[in-house]
Amino acid sequence: MTSTHSHTSSPSDGSRALWEAIDYAHQGRRISQELALSLADVSRSHHPALWAAAAQMRDQGRDPIVTYSRKVFIPLTNLCRDVCSYCTFAKNPDDPRAHTMSPDEVMAVVRAGERMGCKEALFCLGDRPEARWPSHLAQLKRYGHTSTHSYLVEMCRRVLEETGLLPHPNAGVMSLRELTELKEVSASQGLMLETVAERLCGPGGPHEHAPDKRPSTRLSVIKKAGQLQIPFTTGILIGIGETPRERVEALLALRDLQDEYGHIQEIIVQNFRAKENTPMAAAGEPGLIELMTTCAIARLIMGPDAHIQAPPNLSADYGPLLLAGIDDWGGISPLTPDFINPEAPWPNIGALDELCREAGYTLMERLTIYSDYIERPGFVSDAVRPFIDAQLDSADNLVKVGS
Questions:
Q1: Please, what is the Cα angle at 199 between 194 and 203, to 5 degrees?
Q2: In 3D, which of 358, 273, 367 has the Cα closest to residue 323?
Q3: What pLDDT is recorded for position 15?
Q4: Alpha-carbon distance 308 to 229, whole Å?
């Protein structure tokens, strides 16, 4: 679709919002809140124009580079005090698949990843399982800890000091103190907002039994991370019962925090995948068109300098996402599966590189902390900086060639 347009017709409100958004994109300007909310109602036939505007905004003033992070995925514990209607990661202690990794197990995986050229150790775990499961607390004590958080801090420190991989913990809802302690042993952190629809925490909603998924609670954590200048990854999950307008509202809430603190290094737009043996097993999944449109709106809301990611393993055909303004594929592992979505294998990095080249982009490896944040005063702990510097090509703050 051509990027030019005319104002001679009398478009509907949705069309008028679309053309105004295209104007903003041409100028490299983020769209206003009012305009963003109007885009939630743009008709499906106009979605390709939204994608084109977002792609143009992404490409303005930047090299044609798309990034990814080469990682190992460490599911430190799959016990959790929450129950989400779409989750298969969390297990009860009596489930034979329930597991908390030992220090030796963690380090074995990380060292194997190191041999395969991985730079990131992504730690994923349930929210405060010791608050619900006494057996987990007993196991933590055998490892010398009284909380999952203190165990996580120890393992992040060991990974950093013994292998040089950069930890990125997704540790759930945390206090200011806990975030601070993790900043001293990690290069970046993350927590998905998922949604701002509080009603999804009500009776029958996917988060009814998940107190840590309350939007106000998660926004508070993201705000604390901003106050502490932690390079932070967050985003939204689409297809769990929210409306298109609520998706936009979630993105605007994240933009407000970014404007205040400047710490959100990446926005993920993740599509819900229905899983067997869950209450939402029969729920419909958002299609590629819906995902692309949400990615495009995220780009138009967050602006040309933002990093927008969509996980490629969650889409059977992920190539078209490049048409919708994304600039990152997220973490990809040559060793470990996606333990949150185990049915969805990572793409082959060689195939991903070829796809990007055919689309006119160079695929480049980044660290878990985006290059934009490495030199910003206050965003990297003095204890972590030497490990980041050891992985860098000083010319562009991306990964050393051949490292």
A1: 115
A2: 358
A3: 78
A4: 20
CB neighbourhood size of 282 (10 A): 8
Dihedral, 114, 115, 118, 119 alpha carbons, nearest 10: 40
* Residue in the structure block whose two tokens are 């997704």: 170
Domain 65-382 matching CATH 3.30.420.40: the answer reads no
Q: Provide the pLDDT for residue 51.
A: 97
pLDDT of 347 reads: 96
Give strand pairing partners of 234.
267
Question: Which two three-digit tokens encode residue 148?
Answer: 């999952």
Question: What three-state secondary structure class fits 367?
Answer: coil
Q: What are the tokens at 359? A: 């689309």
Share of the chain above pLDDT 70, in %: 95
Residue matched to tokens 């419909």? 284
CA 7 vs CA 15, 50, 51: distances in Å: 11, 17, 20
Q: Is the pTM of this model over 0.85?
A: yes
Place of tokens 């702990």: 381
What is the tens place of the pLDDT at every residue in 155-180?
A: 999 999 999 999 999 999 999 999 99
Which residues are paired to 206 by β-bridges?
none
For every residue of 345-356, DSSP letters joined together read PPPPHHHHHHHH
Task: Return d(Cα 316, Cα 291) in angstroms, integer.
Answer: 12
Helix (H) or strand (E) holding 373: helix 371-374
Any idea where the domains of the chain sit in the sequence?
65-382
